[in-house]
Design brief:
The chain has 252 residues and is α/β, with parallel strands linked by helices. The protein has a domain of 93 residues: Spore Coat Polysaccharide Biosynthesis Protein SpsA, Chain A (Alpha-Beta Complex), CATH 3.90.550. Helices cover 32% and strands 22% of the residues. It contains 7 helices and 9 strands. Strands 1, 2, 3, 4, 5, 6, 7, 8 and 9 form a 9-stranded mixed sheet that branches. The radius of gyration is 18 Å and the shape is globular. The model has no long low-confidence stretch (mean pLDDT 89).
């Protein structure tokens, strides 16, 4: 690993998913853009995963410790990272093509730009309610619609590392802390560049895609924390409509 500060830090939380982790690392290794470091934050996986982690060398690094879940692991990765930009991948998520990172960072990025976001492709057996079975692409958006749904997917989004000097993923939110931080950054009027680029392929089978009512209660809580109790009826009705819509689509 060169001593100069890397342009990009990639953070990968993992727990006992060595097959998925290898897929993710292979996709990173295939990148033509090389100005990065990778921090794998392992939540005390089995010895098989530990053995694999010990075979890695710079620019791949790892830290093993027990944590409360993905968001604590991501916060740990942020503290370890040295890059100008941060990017989060889950084990099993893969970058779309070898050109992906080069295409992202060949764009003109001004000093005022603090987020960059592109499309992601969902793969898996679960169909999120905003997608049809034939269309699993999520396009980024950065507008008032952020109050309706999360317009940025963390596998498609690059964050200026300085954003995390004053904030971190809120561990009170077990499944939507990434939405919480995105909504907070939108409320602060941070500048986000939206790319015509597909960044990653990721699983649609995560907890946040299941659509339990507890998930929507969490969504209501994080919106109230950034607004006012006056909006509670609207947030509750919106959450209920989204909950019922997902139930209908997933049982279609």
């Amino acid at each position: 690993m060169k001593d100069s500060k890397p342009k990009l830090s990639i953070i990968i939380p993992v727990l006992n998913n060595i097959t998925g982790l290898k897929l993710t690392i292979d996709s990173i290794n295939s990148q033509l853009f090389r100005d990065f470091e990778v921090w794998i934050i392992d939540g005390k996986s089995s010895e098989e995963t530990q053995e694999y982690l010990r075979t890695l060398s710079a620019p791949f690094f790892y830290k093993t410790q027990r944590d409360s879940g993905i968001y604590e692991a991501m916060n740990t990765g942020v503290l370890m990272a040295k890059g100008d930009w941060l990017y989060f991948l889950g084990a099993e998520d893969v970058l779309c093509t070898p050109d992906t990172l080069r295409n992202v960072f060949k764009k003109q990025i001004t000093d005022r730009t603090n987020l960059i976001s592109g499309r992601i492709i969902y793969e898996g057996s679960t169909i999120p309610f905003i997608y049809s079975k034939n269309k699993r692409i999520k396009y980024p958006s950065w507008s008032f619609a952020m109050w309706i749904r999360n317009g940025l997917h963390h596998q498609g989004t690059f964050y200026r590392s300085s954003l995390f000097l004053a904030t971190e993923y809120n561990l009170d939110y077990k499944t939507l802390a990434d939405y919480g931080i995105n909504l907070q950054l939108y409320q602060k009027k941070e500048t986000c560049v939206l790319l015509e680029e597909t960044i990653a392929k990721c699983s649609s089978d995560g907890v946040s895609k299941v659509g339990s009512w507890e998930l929507y209660l969490e969504e209501i809580d994080l919106k109230l924390a950034l607004s006012s109790a006056v909006f509670l009826p609207f947030f509750y009705i919106l959450a209920f409509v989204k909950y019922m819509s997902k139930k209908i689509v997933m049982h279609d």
